[in-house]
Amino acid sequence: MKTPLVRDPVSACLHDASKRALLAASVSLGLLALPGCASLPSDPVPPGAKAGFVDIGSGMQLRHLVVRPAHPKGVVLFLHGFPETAYAWKEISLDLGKDYEVHAFDWPGYGLSSRPPAEQFGYAPKDYASVLSQYIRAAGIDRSKLVIYATDIGALPALLAALDDPGIAKSIVVGDFAPLDRPQYMYPSLQSLKVKASAEATRAYMNKTSEEILKNAYRRGLAKEEQFDIPAELEADMFKGWNQGSMTSADAFYHYYSQFTRDQNELEANISRLRTPIRVVWGEKDLYIKPEMGAEFARKSQAAFRVLPGLGHYPHLQRPKQTAEEVRAVLTM
């Protein structure tokens, strides 16, 4: 099993700017204590928890978070959506990490992971599927014990990876995403990203309104009394991770959508070849991608389908304890 190359986020009290950003992430996650750096917090370190960067090849680095108890009962890998980062899984990871090995990483173009030019890396779902497979290998994950939980932009790559390699995981849970080319089930701005004539203008608007997106994306579609706040460190990390280098997260999202229809069609054409056990969960009040999308995909893939009453597009942020219990149930199957 390949041993991952993880850069130590503590060395030299992180003089390098990118490592300072990782340090802030690690400390606020409660994953690292830093003896010898008196100006920094020294929160208790959960047993086996780590934050760092892992090399997956081709000059690509992913920031990842790992919680590993002494005797894990299984492994779960969380895949975030737009405009999130790995921080979206903090609370759930620390909960499940008492019994299970838990991984989460930033997709390329998000958080502190690499952002190569689009000429070198396409950011399409199929490209992310390759990143997922490379991460599993680089992190040394035991695939026979692995459950992948993927939402939004993370879900189609997980299914495409499973088409190529049915043994990539013991099972996969997907939700609140667009597996099929059904624009009628999608939010207008997402529809516009699928059309070349309107995609560039949508990209520009998203970059112009990034602050509003980061503050309100998870509130939309919910009544005022149902709206919720996200943890301050997640919001700060999303803001910090939006614009790193010459590519924003909206740019990465634009490139993802530029080949989205192609990759949706590939999945639908080969859906009968899916052999990895699939479960589908969906927020009842998902404004961005209607539950009808999930219901149709579940029928076509013969997967179990569950609608989550009262929840929107981000069930894991709205009800993290409920998500943790759902994942725990799958891990014990």
Using brief descriptors, characterize the structure shown.
two-stranded antiparallel ribbon, 8-stranded mixed sheet, Rossmann fold, disordered N terminus
Q: What is the tally of helical segments? A: 13
Form type: globular
User: Which second-level CATH architecture applies?
Assistant: 3-Layer(aba) Sandwich
Beta strand count = 10
Estimated radius of gyration: 19 Å
The string of secondary-structure elements, in order, is: HEEEHEHEHEHHHHEEHHEHEHH
CATH topology: Rossmann fold
Kindly give the count of domains: 1
**Class, according to the CATH hierarchy?**
Alpha Beta
Give the topology, please.
Layout lengths: L16 H12 L21 E8 L2 E8 L7 E5 L10 H7 L4 E5 L19 H14 L7 E6 L3 H10 L6 E5 L12 H6 L2 H13 L1 H7 L15 H11 E2 L2 E2 H10 L1 H10 L8 E6 L7 H11 L2 E5 L6 H4 L1 H12 L2
Parallel strand pairs: 3-4, 3-5, 5-6, 6-9, 9-10
Antiparallel strand pairs: 1-2, 2-4, 7-8
Helix pairs in contact: 2-13, 3-4, 4-10, 6-9, 7-8
Description:
This protein is of the alpha/beta class. The protein is 38% helix and 16% strand. It contains 13 helices and 10 strands. The chain has helices at 17-28, 90-96, 125-138, 155-164, 188-193, 196-208, 210-216, 232-242, 249-258, 260-269, 291-301, 315-318, 320-331; strands at residues 50-57, 60-67, 75-79, 101-105, 146-151, 171-175, 243-244, 247-248, 278-283, 304-308. The strands form 2 sheets. An 8-stranded mixed beta sheet has the order 1-2-4-3-5-6-9-10, with helices on both faces. It has a two-stranded antiparallel ribbon with strand order 7-8. Strand 3, helix 2 (90-96) and strand 4 (101-105) form a beta-alpha-beta unit. The protein is globular. It starts with 16 loop residues before the first helix and ends with a helix.
